[in-house]
Amino acid sequence: MGTDKDVALFAECKWTNEKVDLGVLETLVERSSLFNYKKKHFYLFAKTGFTKGCVDKAAEMGNVTLIEYGEMLKA
Q1: Which of 10, 30, 46, 56 is deepest in the core (most CB within 10 A)?
Q2: CA–CA dist 1, 7 (Å, integer)
Q3: Under a CB-based contact definition with an 8 Å cutoff, are residues 25 and 42 in contact?
Q4: Residue ranges in the chain whose pLDDT is less than 50
C-alpha cells in the first residue's frame, strides 16, 4: 500500500492450465470487504488467461487489472 490510507490493492495469482473464471474475481472482491477502504484496486494474474465472464466483469468494474503470464514475459 502507498501513503494514501484510503486506497488498497488486492491481488491473486493462479498458476493452473485452465483459464481463471469469474468466481475467482468475485471471491477476491468478497474477501476485500473485510477491509474498510474507500478505493480498492484488484489485480488477477493467470498462467493461461481469463474466461470471457471474468474479462467482461473486470471491464464493467473498471478497477480490475488482468495480467496473463505471457504479458509478464514481454515486460
Answers
A1: 46
A2: 7
A3: yes
A4: 1
